[in-house]
């Protein structure tokens, strides 16, 4: 669809208000005050508790009851009900639904490696989560979620260039309370969640929340009914593990969160939180969309087919004798027989199936893969939150946190018993952070401010394993990272009069980054293709002379592509925000703002060939102008919020495929324009409706020469005027809710429809990976008895069984285009309790 261009000045907010039905807002049932038909929504988007209608930022906020009623179980599920936001439960080849691919207003990232920092910051009780691994949090004991759209560089800072997602969990109260639910459903789903709040003494209370989820995978692995041949087992090649299963896309998770809170009504408050999550399940589902092995352009798939189908004389003529010969295996270098001439040597017992269209999935919910199939994650942390009231108008706050994650995953991406494309990973990361805030109010609360300082340190190591084309290329990619970030920030909000207010803020950031990579090809494909086959008699590996001749940076490590330097980078930046607000009535605010977001640079860590210097990329920045209206109308029976924005997005960091390697480049610059309308209406005591519409026009204005991709039969290309990925033009959502009394209780009927127009799933606009327009329908019926200590819900998600690709990759060098489809239609029944 041809993108629509528009000028920000041409948008009439009043016209939008008339044209749009009633889009989405949210309520926080833990911090709400009934003052009419709608409830007050309290958020902490500006580091203090405020009515969301008083905050001059585009925010979508959702409370616990609303999340439960709409079957929102993790962060990614918010995507359907939040305009101009795309949240995916997985990224290409990660193999894990715990990895979050987040994009807000066209700015995001779809990778999970240490060389990629997220562009959307995810915060758990005020603590920044440094990795996208584990960021798709299970929404256990959540009080509310705030989705802040646009750059949040001033108050949230690090890597919130596109926006921020703030998850706020429930604090224990001063009364004994038990809440929870039990859910059963499709694919043998069994889920149990619960929370116990236990007062200990006056002022000291505690809570313990837990969650368990088990669900079978929706994609089944089956034996291929045709010819496979004498293929090599996937366990013969180096990997992060060798677990497998007979289905993909399942769940097996348990989580704990404990809190200890001191609040005796005095000046000092303290909350100690500990959480832990363990995931031990199969990998995400995978579907092969095309096999590319008939042209040298798809080199390793073509090479595999050429090796098995050519005579020794033909291989010699092409210079492929060595590369089709003995291969590396888990037993060591050159310890596995070669692929050369297997299908033409006169011995039918060693014949093997070629890589061709027989391996394209006929059924997206059936796979013929036999390789790695696991996703294991352990993550958790400890946070100490301290608050002290210096005066009635001045408070100091400290947030200290330590977090750690251990991740291992493996996924077979080729839909076959052949070892054509198999990936696995080990990631170990730990982070600590310290934030200090001074917040205050003066001039009868007309002037509010926050000042703060922040320190963050992250250390970790990763190791990637990828087997290509029957082991002709065997990537082993270890690396270590060490990052320290410092920041100082402040913001002033001054209500000068009843009519006008001003906002001014800024943040200084410095980051010191270190990365040491050691990516290698354990099969030595470069040596074999170049014919440099001399071996060191002491080690049996290629000689230093061969390594030097072929440009390997460290001759004593002849398989290592990655050089030693540069292994350190420093970044420094200052971002600011300025805004003004008008208050024509008590219930209407009109605002305008300019805000900046910033993300530091890093290293491209995945290489296809040896390089003399480690490839780096620079920082990116977003400058956004926004105007908006927030209003609560008709005796609080209608809440209507509108925002329009334009963003200059510079130095964009995006993934590009070079050969077999997903690399990161500063793609160029882009212009992003759009608007959002969100509303909630309560025309009667029994009927409410929420709805939203979002429009976005995100396109490149300049593309660096090294990042350009010409349109071709497989891809739309990357050039000035091309669309950014994960940025649909339109998204509509409407959710009517009807609650009426029956007996002494009530029944709640809820429906939820989301229409999203098509979008790119990858940078290059691979045609087979394009996400089409989708219509997702969810619905539920809930019975609440008069006692209100239990409830029963029956519902379904994706009722029309709309299937679409949420992520994928055009691995052209490896000869595969593959992707992960959305979950099918599912039913559930949930029993909730509260006493």
Description:
This is TonB-dependent receptor. InterPro entries: Beta-barrel_TonB, Beta-barrel_TonB_sf, Plug_dom, TonB-dep_rcpt-like. Pfam families: Plug, TonB_dep_Rec_b-barrel. This protein has 835 residues and is mainly beta. A hairpin with a 2-residue loop joins strand 7 and strand 8. The radius of gyration is 28 Å and the shape is globular.
Give the secondary structure arrangement, pairings included.
Blueprint: H1 13-19, E1 42-43, E2 50-51, E3 59-63, H2 64-69, E4 85-89, E5 100-104, E6 107-109, E7 120-124, E8 127-128, E9 142-149, E10 163-169, E11 177-185, E12 189-201, E13 204-215, E14 219-221, E15 247-248, E16 251-263, E17 268-281, E18 287-291, H3 299-309, H4 312-318, E19 327-329, E20 332-336, E21 366-367, E22 373-391, E23 394-412, E24 421-442, E25 447-468, E26 473-495, E27 500-517, E28 520-521, H5 525-530, H6 544-549, E29 568-585, E30 588-599, E31 602-603, E32 616-617, E33 620-633, E34 638-650, E35 653-658, E36 661-666, E37 668-681, E38 687-703, E39 730-742, E40 745-756, E41 774-784, E42 790-797, E43 805-811, E44 816-821, E45 826-834
Parallel strand pairs: 7-10, 14-21
Antiparallel strand pairs: 1-2, 3-9, 4-5, 5-6, 7-8, 9-10, 11-12, 11-45, 12-13, 13-16, 14-15, 16-17, 17-22, 18-44, 19-20, 22-23, 23-24, 24-25, 25-26, 26-27, 26-28, 27-29, 29-30, 30-33, 31-32, 33-34, 34-37, 35-36, 37-38, 38-39, 39-40, 40-41, 41-42, 42-45, 43-44
